[in-house]
Amino acid sequence: MTSWNMADKNIIIKIKRQANPGSEPHWEEFVLPHRPNMNVISALMDIAADPITRDGKPTTPITYDSNCLEEVCGSCAMLINGRARMACSALIDNLEQPIRLEPFSKFPVVRDLAVDRQVLFENLKAVKAWVPIDGTYDLGSGPRMTAEEQEAAYPLSRCISCCCCMEVCPQFSEDTGFVGAATISQVRLFNTHPTGAALKRERLAALMGDGGIQECGYAQNCVEVCPKDIPLTHSISEVGGAVMTQASGDLFRK
Amino acid sequence: MASNPRIIVIGGGLAGLAAVIKIAEMGGQVDLFSIVPVKRSHSVCAQGGINAAKNLKGEGDSCWKHFDDTIYGGDFLANQPPVKAMCDAAPGIIDLLDRMGVPFNRTPEGLLDFRRFGGTLYNRTAFAGATTGQQLLYALDEQVRRFESEGKVKKYEHWEFLSAVLDGNRVCRGICAMDLRSMEVRTFPADAIIICTGGIGAIFGKSTNSVVCTGSAQSALYQQGCYYANGEFIQVHPTSIPGEDKLRLMSESARGEGGRVWVPKTPGDKRDPKSIPESERWYFLEEWYPKYGNLVPRDVATRAIFKVVYENHLGIDGKPMVYLDLTHIDRKILDRKLEGILEIYEKFVGDDPRETPMKIFPGMHYTMGGLWVDFNQATNIPGIYSAGECEYQYHGANRLGANSLVSCIFGGFVAGPAAVQYARNASAAASNGHFDAQRKQEEESNALLMKSEGKENPFKLWRELGELMTKDCTVIRYNKNLQKTDARLCEMLERFWRINLSDRSLWANTSVVFARQLYNMLQLSRVIAQGAAMRDESRGAHYKPDFPERDDKNWLKTTKAYFAPDADEPRFEFEPVDISLIPPRARKY
């Protein structure tokens, strides 16, 4: 590309749009003036302020989920040039053009780039992803923990529920009903907490059978794509082992 | 009335979730409304930590000292009894969060570790890496999910609060809200409601706040008759990372762990910062404030940076930026204590702050003002309570770092039980006619916006609003400019009615939702601009070069704005501050 080319100063973005869950998707293309330090979100904001396609057709602002724009709320996950990632931390200068934006493919589309990821929150309910405290009245300090224990728990606790790991998992589908890596990793987090361990058996039981941890095919796509670098495959093998142990124990007790 | 009252909580950040937990524990039934899934609320952005005088470092810290630092840091504008109650409760709140499983950093003995933050000389801040807000929010979110699975809490996520439903006696009987997907407008009855809708960053265009922090709910309630207090007090955080879509916070914990702020002594020095020798760097905060150094309160640090950039013309490369330097600190310590924030800088700027000093500049960060509440978190409308950043109670004229998380949780813990208590004693509404009337009114507003055939684009109008408010209503304020700002706001409110929505569809239409928020932002902006114009003194974050001193004789008062519907503008009252515990003294760091 030569330096005088207009394409240098413009960004070309193709967006897969869908008016509602029942309608057919279609693509729209936009050209935007380039500014240094732009991310995908700022491009979407520019489109909202001036919603006109590349061929001059007036259109509607893009619907997408977003909130913190600091990659910590987990809202703005989408497919960017085919890769599952957060739109806020996707810097335009690092992306090949034309930039392609698509909604996640394994979740129901709400509109345009917004999808319904409620399934993860339901999964977290199913595995009781909480510490069962007695109440919020004053019961003194929590269990003492070593710095090493804290340093092991903290990375797991940084999961932002973006669902990137589920989107890229070959096993995650309506057919398998697989819970996905994020939920399994939360089971590991709560099972290792001194008080959280009280529900360990129930959590592991919830991961047995169809849709449970056995569905994992060890493709390892989850850990590749996690924006928070959570050791997801490590969590899966650790929890998988615990599920096996519990399942065989249950068998002998019968 | 009901022994198991139905309470509506609006907003699922720390304050909202704290309230929900208390209500569920007391046997109440909660409907929880949120624009985003509650786990994605803005509380996740809080980085550095949460204050509590646990005194685990043998420094002789105490709850009274925490209280004194908070009142002094807030330049004596906060009513003192609730602040004292918060500081007294803080150590217990830390214990509770610890029991809930928050992965707080630990000492070698396995106890909670504490670090230093701005505006105090004590290590009083408990922290979970540099994503403390995220960790706290998740802990409360998990407890609420547990109550949800027990049927005690029903979540309405992707719903936006539009207005309260008030009966003929102006008692709150429920809310009117909109489903952000189907666009359905619906009313919900409740025995009491609690507003926990956070800050108002969007009014300033770019800020460190999240997208949902528009202040729309607070503004709607102000327009329905709630007092809005101390609106003119807006915190500008000294260290944010300028961005195209927002300003990203660079936590005070960077300075708490030893980060140093400096500029090259030579204007326009283009050298690589690492190659500039110590003798040619100006550590202006350390020079001007030897006692607190880089950890002076935020308003003080922000004004110092403005002075260096705009008066001394020493911004990096002539631009409005200064260095925040961590490169002298051991990498391992940085990774263990600050990883989350260093990662943000790396991802969004592209430089490694362990190797290169960060370039930062002040950015709008926190809303000290908010809905007026009494010591029970009750607004002036019976049945409406409020907690968290959206109310005004705990931070006076300037908030200290790491006090926001504790004020959110404490406020929620007071508001929840207070609302339940109120509901148990309240009498039933005489009729239900107000629900239909409120719904029809909101539906008509939506229809009006959908039909409007003007030329104004709401997103462009918003950018204009943000630039205007940032320029004239943040760090340095002049009466002439504030008056001009209010005139411009009036003009923008007129232009608002010539809006043209490029999207008129009836499914997940973000334009109509945003337009509604924008209207409320414009109305609330007038409260900020006029409140700032009136207050002829300098106090905490409110600074007027023409009135550089604090004036306790005339202005040791809470500003209370109320909406005059006929005139379509704010009116003001002033209320004395409760200074019953610590007599005001000069604030000198």
Secondary-structure blueprint:
The complex is a heterodimer of chains A (254) and B (589).
Chain A: E1 10-17, E2 26-33, H1 40-49, E3 77-80, E4 83-86, E5 99-102, E6 109-111, E7 114-115, H2 118-126, H3 147-157, H4 164-167, H5 181-192, H6 200-206, H7 221-225, H8 232-253
Parallel strand pairs in A: 1-5
Antiparallel strand pairs in A: 1-2, 3-4, 3-5, 6-7
Helix pairs in contact in A: 5-8
Chain B: E1 6-10, H1 14-25, E2 29-34, E3 50-51, H2 63-73, H3 80-99, E4 114-116, E5 123-126, H4 132-149, E6 153-157, E7 159-166, E8 172-179, E9 185-189, E10 192-195, H5 216-223, E11 228-229, E12 234-241, E13 248-249, H6 253-256, E14 260-264, E15 281-282, H7 284-288, H8 298-311, E16 322-325, H9 331-349, E17 358-367, E18 370-371, E19 384-386, H10 404-425, H11 433-451, H12 458-472, H13 479-496, H14 510-534, H15 552-555, E20 557-564, E21 569-576
Parallel strand pairs in B: 1-2, 1-10, 2-6, 10-19
Antiparallel strand pairs in B: 3-5, 4-5, 7-8, 8-9, 11-18, 11-20, 12-13, 12-17, 14-15, 14-16, 16-17, 20-21
Helix pairs in contact in B: 1-4, 1-10, 2-3, 3-10, 5-14, 12-13, 12-14, 13-14
Describe this structure in words.
The complex is a heterodimer of chains A (254) and B (589). Chain A has 254 residues and is an alpha+beta fold. In chain A, the strands form two sheets. Chain A has a five-stranded mixed beta sheet with strand order 2-1-5-3-4. Chain A has a two-stranded antiparallel ribbon with strand order 6-7. In chain A, β6 and β7 form a beta hairpin. In chain A, α5 crosses α8. Chain A is elongated and about 70 Å long. Chain B is of the alpha+beta class. In chain B, 36% of the residues lie in helices and 18% in strands. Chain B contains 15 helices and 21 strands.
